[in-house]
Write a structure and sequence with these properties.
Layout: H1 2-87, H2 91-165, H3 170-246, H4 257-303, H5 310-331, H6 336-343, H7 350-371, H8 377-472, E1 477-481, E2 487-490, H9 492-498, H10 502-505, H11 516-532, E3 541-547, E4 553-565, E5 568-577, H12 579-620, H13 623-630, E6 638-650, H14 653-659, H15 662-680, E7 686-691, E8 694-699, H16 709-725, E9 739-753, E10 759-763, H17 765-775, E11 782-784, H18 786-795, E12 798-808, E13 812-822, H19 831-851
Parallel strand pairs: 9-11
Antiparallel strand pairs: 1-2, 1-5, 3-4, 4-5, 6-8, 6-9, 7-8, 9-10, 11-13, 12-13
Length: 852
């Protein structure tokens, strides 16, 4: 009976806590819905403000166009009066004045149009900045809300866990508390990853908004540039036609100035009416677009579950605002020159000027004909006028077709950008989902392994005590330091040797035990090794001088070994006192030195000269070529059927030069090339040349190495990326080095060029392709050609990702690949390359799952 009651109470308790959890979840969902509603209201208010700003902006543009039309007409009338008065003195002077006046008006109109375009671009930039600030504010709120929700969830779990285990025994509660802490740690890690994923999505949204704005900005500039070119072309055509007509109009005189003035005023009034009608159509079209955008925005909010995309609406609004005046004016059906100018979007500048000038010339010609109808040249002028009109109409039709083609191209680019952005967002969301699933699976395994970790820790403590006992009985001094040079172990023999106790030196830098000369550069040695991986003392023994506590220097023999295991990184130095041995050696050396002094004095000058010449040649030429030159042999160009070439350079080198002094650039290049030379020395490769930020390396020459040159260059490129990731510039802690690398495999011809300054140079298309692989690549990535890909694939062991068809300058379309890793590679690669490797593994896993 008691067990039955206990089971009943246990079930009731579990049911009670499950109900509490469900209530917490429902409360949290309600809070999330309220927060989403607040964000939606803010988006609606922002869109309404945007609509009002667009209407004000369009009205300002229309007022400027109308005022510009009136000013142009007034200047045209004034110029005409001046020309007519001047015609009484000399006709040719009038024509020159007309040409000059028209040029001035065209330049003035062009400058005003350029100012209008600049102002419009500035307004678009300001609107984009406001939209970006709104998106950033919205993203900040989303991250804060997510963090608060995650914290609330952890608090709920903590309270429920305490309530559930309050009646258990102390031992059970301790066990349950450990499990809860482990579970909460994993939950915190998962929450951190969810927050990071949200931030990645937000950064992608900002990036998409920037891409859409850049496309819109560039499209507007292209559209305005095309219109300006068309206006200039039409002005040049009219100017040429006017000059051609002047040859035939020398004998014609204008007779009807008053009628012409009335006609011009009537035309001006007609143009003003057309412009007013066009402005009304534009305002109506803009309001209709705003209503349509509001409807689209509401529908997007509903379809996305309350998540509004302000950046997409703003981008569509800004693109439609550019194209709306063109479509509305073109649909109005205005005919003739004024109608085409309206389609071009410059009815206030190009249309009236071209139409007025054309009609003015035509009226002058008709007046000339009426004044002298019997003139034989009248028919010729009529035919020429018709020919000119046909040429103008044809040019306007061509301009209209060009604008339509450009607008269609802009729409296509916009659609392509939206499609690519949607695909990118979808891939990112899928990647996030897969990462979370993998993380949850890994956390479950880690929780199961937690119990075994405690046993391993206990065993490790026992082994550490045994090791300490053994080290204290060794007769040589043993000193352990960490990568920063801090002493972490000092055995008994070392205490006797240096006069310090372990408590006095542990936690201090090992420089206190070294001579001043070695102590001054010891940290630099450690830094160089940790950066380049080049060993100078590790694994080898050498003699040095130690410094005792009382300041006495004494000779020692030191050998250093390195331990790098499971996150522990230590250097162990074994020190042996050489005081007696050094005394005997110095006595023998003194005798030998006295005998050799005379000989060394004689050959010193010869050695110095030879060393200088050898050092100079070794920097410019390979060893074999150097020997042949020294022997006086002629160097014959040598073809190599297959070798691998590597090109690299510094990304943004021009910007770095502009922001740095000459001495800083020397320090940067010296440190970088010293680092690269150290990496190259570990591979079968030859540095061909370095020019500013360009670095060229080859393998397979001058000494052939069979089919190993692709692997040597691939290993070298991966090590260069890893080394560049850890490169730092003194005085510039914020500087991050970025390089791009290109690799190609193929035949070359090698030879020595020059007599006074001979250089070992490589020639052939393989060099050009390698250079293009570098220039068309991405920062902190390695791009390889098809030939190198096939060679590495034959050798095996490398991780390669197909980039696809890439447009290469001078080579057209080529299929290229990314080199993203190698099996069992211990070095850490940059994020730009590591993400390609992760994506490749994900695709491979997906393919494997589908095949299964």
């Amino acid at each position: 009976m008691q067990s039955h009651f206990k089971g009943f109470m246990t079930n009731q308790t579990l049911h009670f806590f499950e109900s509490l959890r469900n209530d917490c979840i429902r409360i949290e969902e309600g809070m999330k819905d309220s927060e989403k509603e607040v964000l939606r209201k803010e988006d609606e208010a922002y869109l309404n403000q945007r609509h009002d700003a667009e209407l004000v902006h369009l009205k300002k543009l229309q007022q400027g166009e109308f005022q510009q039309l009136k000013d142009t007409f007034q200047r045209l009338i004034a110029a005409r009066d001046a020309r007519k008065k001047a015609k009484k003195i000399q006709r040719q002077t009038v024509r020159d004045m007309k040409r000059r006046d028209k040029t001035i008006m065209d330049q003035d109109a062009a400058s005003k149009e350029a100012a209008r375009v600049k102002w419009t671009l500035t307004e678009k930039r300001n609107m984009f900045d406001a939209m970006t600030a709104h998106m950033v504010n919205k993203h900040d709120k989303q991250r804060r809300q997510l963090a608060m929700a995650q914290e609330r969830k952890i608090q709920y779990e903590r309270v429920l866990d305490e309530m559930q285990n309050v009646h258990e025994r102390v031992e059970v509660r301790r066990t349950m508390q450990k499990k809860f802490l482990v579970r909460m740690n994993h939950q915190s890690a998962a929450d951190k990853r969810v927050s990071d994923q949200l931030q990645e999505i937000q950064q992608l949204e900002l990036k998409h908004a920037k891409e859409r704005f850049d496309l819109e900005f560039q499209s507007y500039e292209d559209l305005q540039a095309t219109k300006a070119q068309q206006v200039l072309a039409m002005s040049e055509l009219i100017a040429g036609q006017t000059i051609e007509l002047h040859f035939e109009k020398e004998r014609l005189v204008a007779q009807r100035e008053l009628a012409k003035l009335a006609l011009l005023e009537a035309q001006h009034i007609a143009e003003c009416k057309k412009m007013t009608k066009s402005h009304r159509i534009q305002l109506k079209a803009l309001r209709g677009q705003q209503e349509a955008r509001d409807i689209d925005a509401h529908s997007d909010n509903k379809s996305d579950g309350g998540k509004s995309d302000v950046s997409s609406v703003a981008s569509a609004t800004m693109i439609k605002s550019v194209l709306a005046p063109v479509v509305a004016t073109g649909a109005a059906g205005t005919a003739g020159v004024a109608g085409v100018a309206g389609v071009a979007g410059v009815a206030g500048v190009a249309g009236p000027l071209e139409n007025t000038t054309k009609e003015e010339d035509s009226d002058d010609e008709r007046n000339d004909i009426e004044a002298d109808p019997d003139n034989k040249s009248a028919s010729t002028i009529i035919r020429l006028i018709k020919k000119h009109e046909q040429a103008r109409d044809s040019t306007l039709e061509i301009h209209k077709a060009e604008l339509e083609k450009l607008e269609s191209s802009i729409q296509d680019r916009t659609l392509q950008l939206e499609a690519s952005q949607q695909l990118e967002m979808k891939e990112l969301l899928e990647t996030h989902e897969n990462e979370l699933q993998a993380l949850y699976s890994l956390q479950e395994k880690e929780i199961q392994m937690e119990a075994s970790v405690h046993d391993a820790e206990a065993k490790m403590l026992v082994e550490r005590r045994v090791l300490n006992s053994v080290l204290d009985t060794v007769i040589n001094g043993i000193i352990n330091i960490d990568p920063s040079g801090i002493i972490v172990r000092f055995n008994s023999a070392a205490e006797s040797m240096f006069g310090y106790t372990a408590d006095e030196v542990i936690g201090l830098n090992v420089k206190i035990l070294q001579s001043p000369e070695i102590a001054a550069v010891h940290d630099t040695f450690l830094t160089n090794y940790l950066t380049t991986g080049i060993k100078k003392i590790i694994g080898y023994g050498r003699r040095a001088f130690g410094l005792k506590k009382d300041g006495t220097m004494f000779p020692v023999h030191i050998s250093v070994s390195e331990v790098l295991e499971d996150g522990a990184h230590l250097f162990t130095g074994i020190v042996r006192d050489l005081t007696e041995e050094v005394r005997l050696e110095e006595f023998r050396k003194a005798t030998d030195m006295q005998k050799q002094a005379e000989i060394e004095k004689l050959i010193k000058q010869v050695d110095i000269s030879k060393a200088k010449s050898d050092a100079l040649l070794s920097q410019m030429l390979p060893a074999d070529i150097q020997k042949q030159l020294v022997a006086g042999n002629q160097i014959i160009p040598e073809p190599f059927d297959s070798c691998t070439i590597l090109f690299s350079n510094i990304v943004g080198y021009a910007d770095v030069c502009a922001q740095s002094t000459a001495l800083e650039m020397v320090d940067l290049l010296n440190g970088l090339y010293t680092l690269f030379d150290g990496v190259i020395s570990q591979h079968d490769a030859y540095k061909v040349e370095t020019i500013n930020d360009s670095y060229v390396v080859a393998s397979g020459l001058p000494m052939r190495n069979g089919q190993m040159h692709p692997c040597e260059i691939a290993n070298l490129a991966l090590n260069l990326l890893a080394a560049a990731l850890n490169f730092t510039l003194p005085g510039r802690p914020d500087f991050r080095l970025k390089i791009q690398i290109g690799i190609n495999t193929g035949p070359v011809v090698a030879g020595v060029v020059g007599l006074k300054m001979p250089r070992y140079c490589l020639f052939g298309d393989t060099m050009n392709v390698a250079s293009r692989m570098m220039s068309s690549g991405d920062p902190m990535r390695i791009q390889i050609s098809e030939a190198t890909y096939q060679a590495l694939k034959r050798n095996g062991g490398y991780e390669l990702v197909c980039r696809g068809e890439t447009k290469v300058k001078g080579k057209g379309i080529m299929t290229t690949y990314w080199l993203v890793g190698k099996e069992d590679m211990p070095l850490r690669l940059p994020e730009e390359t590591a993400c390609l490797s992760a994506a490749n593994h994900h695709r491979a896993q997906s393919t494997s799952n589908l095949s299964q």
